[in-house]
Amino acid sequence: MTSRISLTQYLVEKQREKGLIPAELRLLVEVVARACKRISIAVSKGALGGVLGDAGTNNVQGEPQKKLDVIANETLLEANEWGGNLAAMASEEMDHSYTIPNRYPKGEFLLLFDPLDGSSNIDVNISVGTIFSVLRLPESVVDVSDEHFLQPGVKQVAAGYAIYGPATMLVLTVGDGVAAFTLDRETGSWSLTEDQLRIPEQTKEFAINSSNSRHWQPPVRRYIDELLAGREGPRGKDFNMRWVASMVADVHRVMSRGGIFMYPRDNREPEKPGKLRLLYEANPMSFLVEQAGGAATNGLQRIMEVQPTKLHERVAVFLGSREEVERVTSYHRD
Ligand code: P6P
Predict the structure, then answer these.
(1) pLDDT of 248-290, one tens digit each?
(2) What is the second-level CATH architecture of the domain 7-195?
(3) Smallest Cα–Cα separation from 282: which of 117, 157, 137?
(4) Distance between CA atoms of 294 and 226, rounded to whole angstroms?
(5) 215 C-alpha to center of ligand 1: Å?
(6) Are 7-195 and 205-333 equal in CATH topology?
(7) For ligand 1, is residue 245 a contact (CB within 6 Å)?
(8) For domain 205-333, which architecture applies?
(9) Pocket lining: 247 vs ligand 1, CB cutoff 6 Å
(10) 100-157 pLDDT per residue, tens
(11) Residue 37 C-alpha to ligand 1 middle, in angstroms?
(12) Cα(91) to centroid(ligand 1), Å
């Protein structure tokens, strides 16, 4: 039986053969992947783990935190603070960035994450995930603060997500395509199961929360109405809709078989550019999608070119099959 390539071997080959990633970044990705294994174990216990339900606290977004949100956040902080390859970390669950304590050496990378995305689905046993993004600490910075995280997505050196579904998978890019690993629970290793994920340029599947349709802006209404008109309409073909309400699950479906995932801004809070967070949700997902041949915009420009102004900035998201993203973006520009 041909033994599958492990995450370690995949990363060592990227480091050795292509000189693509320094050892420090390889080690960082491996530590994050190990933390995701631990989160997977906690999530998979469900009610037996005594960790379902609310933590009784709210995060910086004012949203109630699930117990597993807090556990996942602490797991990532504890796993990554001592390695010496990070200067600081930022999380959806923390108001401000977390600087590596002085008792540990600091490194040249910044790690950002949504420790448990889609956590509202946990109590109903629907797939959730961890999203992460890696930036470099800007040159000559000594005292790290939130402002050093405010880099456009094109500055990312690695990004990925773990999805805690029927199988636990890790989908990763270090800038040389997208690879998918499946957690082998018997050996505890991440086994390479897809080496070059590619998103088909065309699709018949779209993902959006249609209950918000009365709040959408005209370009989105026009685009969705055309999809719903099906083969009798201007698109000349029927479309299907999916909405898990767990970004990692919806995006993983797009990464696996194509589609377009949308969370547009809407008129409920017109001052808010969208619901999803730019730095640790939209940027890492956009890096993965573009590396797999797809596209990702906020309706007007590449998400990865948006210049962040605050750590928990939100952004509108249209990502997936290139032809569909380009079409809905063109409607915004009309
Ligand atoms: P809605 C989960 O809370 C999340 O941040 C994303 O994972 C998901 O895509 C979105 O919000 C779902 O939002 O408004 O449909 O519940």
Answers:
(1) 999 999 999 999 999 999 899 988 999 999 999 999 999 999 9
(2) 2-Layer Sandwich (3.30)
(3) 117
(4) 21
(5) 16
(6) no
(7) yes
(8) 3-Layer(aba) Sandwich (3.40)
(9) yes
(10) 999 999 999 999 999 999 988 988 999 999 999 999 999 999 899 999 999 999 999 9
(11) 23
(12) 17
